[in-house]
Amino acid sequence: MTGAALRPGETPGIGYAVARAAALRGHAVALLDVSARGLAGAEAALRAEFAPPAGDVPPAGIALPVGDAPPGAAALAAGVALSLAVGLPAGDAPRPSGTPPGVGLNCRVARADIGDAAAVTAAVAALGPVTAVVTAAALTRTARSFVPFLDLEPADIDAAVAVNVSGLFNVVRAVVPGFLAARRGVVITIGSAAASYPASGLALYAMTKAAVASVTRSLAAEYGSRGIHVQGFAPGPVRTAVYARTPEHYRRSTAENSVTGRPAEPGEIADEIVAAIEHPQPLLAGHMVPLDGGLSPFGVHRATEPRSPQGA
Questions:
Q1: pLDDT reported for residue 190
Q2: Which residue in 39, 32, 48, 124 sits closest to 84, CA to CA?
Q3: Residue 130 parent element (H or E)
Q4: Within a domain: residue 161?
Q5: CB of 226 closer than 8 Å to CB of 177
Q6: d(C-alpha 25, C-alpha 180), whole Å
Q7: Does residue 160 lie within any of the structural domains?
Q8: For the chain, what is the domain count?
Q9: Is residue 86 one of the residues assigned to a domain?
Q10: Alpha-carbon distances of 197 from 58, 205, 296, rounded to whole Å
Q11: Would you say 187 and 230 are in contact if contact means Cβ atoms under 8 Å apart?
Q12: Can you tell me the distance from the alpha carbon of 113 to that of 119, in angstroms, rounded to the nearest whole number?
């Protein structure tokens, strides 16, 4: 899984939420991110939640310390903003019904940049066979998220494309050979409602997420008949650390123009992703499934309670 870092005091992102949800279902997870600090935070959070009772022996395979994994090593998790790729080890299955949460946690971490093809290839090789990958990594420079088009610098464009587009290619290219050999595998991409709905200042981010949608369709067409299920999800606003730093007018507008009237929680998005991994739906192959709470660029006409007849 890509993009699962968790920095101290920060609200979890979609990547970390997916790693947590997968772990709760009994899957092994591995965290891969460019930030050693973020990896340490994510690992610590999982350790704290899944820690065995005092005096118990930790289950085999419980999270490896960040320092134990060299750059470019194992990967299978989720994160906040930069780079990561998530997969479920081959043969993994949800824990048997009634097994207490946290029993048998298997979590590994590694530092690598998914914009670096060689590092990603090494990470996947170190991890071993996987049966699913979630490309949750995305670059959003929070200080420049809503940037007038003419103010974008070449470096902004290069950085966003390297992570959001090239990173997707690097991760999928690394896992597909194994999927083809096994004639099974699941690829889940993470797009964005920003690719479909207009928002001033989001041209760069929207462009890269539109590319994710196009790649998802092409991958599904190329590999769907060969045992690989490919689909994507397009979340709307999600209550993450990045969302908290978006302009107030954006947060207000998206809430007013959605059926739910609120941003999604990372865990809500993660539950849908893990369900798609465990039970892939063939009719959703190639689709970017919206998870935007009924977001509409035309606004939402909300029903109001009928007034009681006067004097009633």
A1: 96
A2: 32
A3: strand 130-135
A4: yes
A5: no
A6: 26
A7: yes
A8: 1
A9: yes
A10: 47, 12, 8
A11: yes
A12: 7
Q: What is the pLDDT of residue 163?
A: 92
| Interior/surface letters 145-163, b for 16+ CB within 10 angstroms, e for the rest | bebeeeeeeeeeeebbbbb
Question: What average pLDDT does the structure give for the chain?
Answer: 77
pLDDT for the residue 94: 44
Say which residues have a Cβ less than 8 Å from residue 244's Cβ, sequence separation at least 6. Answer: 11
Residue ranges making up the domain that contains 181: 14-291
Using DSSP's 3-state secondary structure scheme, residue 254 falls into helix
Q: Is the pLDDT of residue 166 over 80?
A: yes
- State how beta strands 86-89 and 130-135 pair: antiparallel
pLDDT at residue 59 is higher than 50 = no
CATH number of residue 53's parent domain: 3.40.50.720
Residue 7: predicted pLDDT? 54
Looking at per-residue confidence, does 98 or 256 come out higher?
Answer: 256
Helix axes 117-127, 167-182, angle to 10 degrees: 30
Does residue 47 form part of some domain? yes
Contacting residues for 139 by C-beta, under 8 A, at least 6 apart? 81, 82, 159, 160, 162, 163, 164
The pLDDT assigned to 220 comes to 98
What's the distance, Cα to Cα, between the start and end of the chain in Å?
Answer: 59
Asked if residue 288 has pLDDT above 50, the reply is yes
How far apart CA 262 and CA 131 sit, in angstroms, is 34
How confident is the model at residue 311, as a pLDDT?
A: 55
Encoded tokens for 168: 């997707």
Predicted structure pTM score: 0.80
Cα–Cα distance list, 253 to 29, 247, 263, 302 (Å): 36, 10, 11, 15
Look-up of token digits 């709905």: 197
- What does the alpha-carbon distance between residue 126 and residue 128 come to, in Å, rounded to a whole number? 6
| Structure tokens belonging to residue 303 | 């029903």
